[in-house]
Amino acid sequence: MDHNKLALPVGTTLDRFIMRKQEDFPYATGELSQLLRDIALAAKIVNREINRSGLIDIAGAYGNRNVQGEDQQKLDVIANIRFIRALRNGGEVCTIISEEDEDMIQTGNDQGKYVVAIDPLDGSSNIDVNVSIGTIFSIYRRVSPTGRPGTSADCLQPGTHQVAAGYVIYGSSTMLVYTTGNGVNGFTYEPSLGEFFLSHPDIQTPKTGAIYSINEGASDTFSPGVVAFVKHCKDASFSARYIGSLVADFHRNLLKGGIYIYPATGKAPKGKLRLMYECNPLAFIVEQAGGRSSDGYQRTLSIEPKDCHARCPIFIGSQDLVEQAEAFMAQETAPVAATLAST
Ligand SMILES: O=P(O)(O)OC[C@H]1O[C@](O)(COP(=O)(O)O)[C@@H](O)[C@@H]1O
Ligand SMILES: [Mg+2]
Ligand SMILES: [Mg+2]
């Protein structure tokens, strides 16, 4: 598909962009378009809550723990409610997998063709300190359009089956970045007009870069391959950048070139990040932008999810950097020099 078949000008509204892109698909019925609009609507509402979170009493912990064993922040809960409500009211989604809910959420839209996996609020540790946070979503089509919706066959599909994925970053500006498998486009929110406008058409991530993002606080439990790759980055005078909000670290590296790694650690032997609503959607986007994503060995999108909240290590970003990291992982016991020579 020639992504530029319909190169819409910067400043095109998201609504118009969705509508015009739908025309690329003669058999499109508009349901996915409507679903993307529902997500954009919820993002606008959550954006408003985030922007004024310091003024109203929505800062701090909610007092519950989620299925991950994490203390839920009030904004985690508010964002979760807002997105679930928008997806339920929109009517296109039969089942939702949310980071904040242990079980799959059946919306009651039994005719809904889509399953959505969502991280309503990403970067929870940064909520109260005014650092960029986000929302991450992944969309699948039901495998069994008739019959009981939300079966595990519908919900536990590999990332290669995603029909769309994206994220919202609530930062110095608020942006929505998404793909439907035909390139990646970014839209910036203009609050006074209540509209998202095309600001980053057809995003291509640089093939390489000089930024590495990893929480070195856990480095004493990194595997030899990760240790060797981090040393390689330092020897190459790369810049270390780590915000602690996956969406924000990913977005920076997507635009500037770089690699984000959340490896297996002593505390998180399977990695910390969740396959269905963190790793898969960002892997779909980075691949559509010319980058790469794996667990150090296997392509992220081909990993078979065992359950809704399955975790996996992630190495994601510029093609060359991820390949280099994979070479170190493959040769965990080989001397660094030999590994460098072979990459
Ligand atoms: O504090 P750590 O271990 O570096 O983990 C930070 C990572 O955890 C996360 O906060 C996990 O996501 P949630 O905030 O959605 O739970 C990522 O955004 C971030 O990259
Ligand atoms: Mg997250
Ligand atoms: Mg979250």
UniProtKB/TrEMBL annotation:
It is found in: Cytoplasm. Its cofactor is Mg(2+). Mg(2+) 2 binds at D119, D122, E278. It catalyses: beta-D-fructose 1,6-bisphosphate + H2O = beta-D-fructose 6-phosphate + phosphate. Residues 206-329 form the Fructose-1-6-bisphosphatase class 1 C-terminal domain. GO terms for cellular component: cytosol. It comes from the Bacteria. Pathway: Carbohydrate biosynthesis. Mg(2+) 1 binds at E99, D119, L121. Pfam families: FBPase, FBPase_C. Keywords: Carbohydrate metabolism, Cytoplasm, Hydrolase, Magnesium, Metal-binding. Transmembrane segments: none annotated. Binds 2 magnesium ions per subunit. CDD domains: FBPase. Substrate binds at D122, G123, S124, S125, N215, Y242, K272. Its EC number is 3.1.3.11. Residues 13-201 form the Fructose-1-6-bisphosphatase class I N-terminal domain. GO terms for biological process: fructose 1,6-bisphosphate metabolic process; fructose 6-phosphate metabolic process; fructose metabolic process; gluconeogenesis; sucrose biosynthetic process. The keyword Hydrolase applies. One of its GO terms (molecular function) is magnesium ion binding. Its main location: cytoplasm. Homotetramer. Belongs to the FBPase class 1 family. This is Fructose-1,6-bisphosphatase class 1. It comes from Hymenobacter setariae. The gene is fbp.
